[in-house]
Design a protein that fits this description.
The complex is a heterodimer of chains A (about 100) and B (about 250).
Chain A (H helix, E strand, L loop, with lengths): L4 H13 L4 H15 L8 H10 L1 H7 L6 H12 L10 H8 L2
Helix pairs in contact in A: 1-2, 1-5, 3-5
Chain B lengths: L1 H29 L2 H24 L6 H29 L6 H25 L3 H42 L5 H29 L8 H22 L3 H18 L1
Classes of the chains: A mainly alpha (about 100), B mainly alpha (about 250).
């Protein structure tokens, strides 16, 4: 299943800015998302930003990338330019609205 | 037993009408398809169709009863189909199988409803009607049971994910709790549905036997309580969920 626009953009940038190949980059991000309770198909740039700050550095270190800060900074820059218009709404947004 | 059943049905009907109306009105403001689907589910199926179907059982055979049966079945099929499409659109918007699964469930519901209506149209003998409608009712209960199982799985799966998000500040405690209640609603409905189906397949009249009547009534009562907590939670409950979450966070800090 294809990932969200934000997820795909982050994967491409992670592959470009590290020695990880395409599948390792996707897997690394996927593991971080699973730890955060998020899904690749619906994750937004804002949610991914939190994951990059809080969880990704540990995953990158486990892949031998000692200094994760510049990689995370580049990912944040890419996410800031992502256009999420037309993306499917997550179940959390629906349940937040319906019970309000 | 009949009194308890009537009270539970009345409470469930009233709650469904209020929740359904609120969601439909909300969908007009937000232009959101999920709230429209869920609003139509509660308003048409649980709010009007199901009580109409039950009421038809107390009517003597004639045009009024036939009208109640036909309207009841049509509204139940329509509402339950909206419920299946809600699951598909909200929980699996990108999955290729979800909309076809909801469409298949809707077809089974429609076929079951037609069998039930056909049984009533074929003979005025109500004992014979119950026998002829059994297959159709079983098909509808099967499709509905599948929908409730889907609800339970998605609700509890999302609750697990939302708890992880909560720890990162990516979720609200109240919304997280709504997924738990949603999953539990699915489990409760699956249980009464399973009891009713098994008695129906054993050849028992599920409208009069105390076990399925009790299961359906208590299930309806529990569902009504959870609907209120999900869609129109009182302030004290929202505060309690927030406090509970806060004290757990402090305990694990």
């Amino acid at each position: 299943m294809a990932g969200s626009v934000a997820f795909e953009a982050a994967c491409t940038e992670l592959e470009r800015s590290t020695s990880l190949d395409r599948w390792a980059a996707r897997g690394t991000l996927q593991l971080s998302l699973m730890d955060a309770g998020l899904e690749t198909s619906s994750v937004t740039a804002a949610q991914l930003g939190v994951v990059i700050d809080r969880l990704l550095p540990r995953q990158l270190q486990s892949h031998g990338i000692a200094d994760a800060s510049p990689v995370c900074a580049r990912l944040r820059d890419v996410l800031a330019t992502v256009d999420e218009r037309g993306a499917a709404e997550g179940a959390d947004a629906v349940f937040s609205r319906m019970g309000a | 037993m009949a009194g308890l059943s009537l009270v539970c049905l009345a409470l469930y009907t009233l709650t469904s009408l209020v929740v359904g109306t609120r969601l439909i009105l909300r969908s007009r403001r937000s232009r959101g398809l999920p709230e429209l689907l869920m609003g139509l589910t509660y308003f048409t199926s649980s709010g009007i169709g199901y009580p109409l179907s039950v009421a038809s059982g107390f009517m003597s055979s004639g045009p009024a009863m036939l009208t109640a049966v036909i309207m009841g079945q049509v509204l139940i099929v329509f509402g339950c189909s909206c419920f299946l499409f809600f699951n598909a659109k909200v929980f699996r918007p990108n999955a290729s199988w979800s909309v076809p699964a909801a469409a298949f469930g809707s077809l089974v519901l429609a076929a079951g409803g037609l069998v039930v209506i056909g049984a009533y149209l074929s003979t005025p003998d109500l004992a014979l009607v119950a026998d002829r409608a059994r297959g159709g009712t079983a098909a509808m209960l099967f499709a509905l049971g599948g929908g409730h199982a889907w609800t339970a799985i998605e609700g509890l799966r999302h609750y697990r994910m939302m708890r992880k998000r909560l720890a990162l500040g990516l979720a609200e405690p109240v919304v997280t709790n709504r997924f738990l209640l949603w999953g539990l609603t699915g489990l409760v409905s699956m249980t009464w549905n399973g009891v009713a189906s098994s008695y129906l397949l054993a050849g028992v009249n599920i409208s009069t036997h105390p076990v399925p009547v009790l299961a359906i009534s208590l299930g309806g009562l529990a569902s009504a309580a959870m609907l209120v907590l999900i869609f129109m939670a009182p302030a004290w409950y929202t505060r309690w969920v927030g406090r509970e979450r806060g004290s757990r966070a402090l305990a694990t800090a």
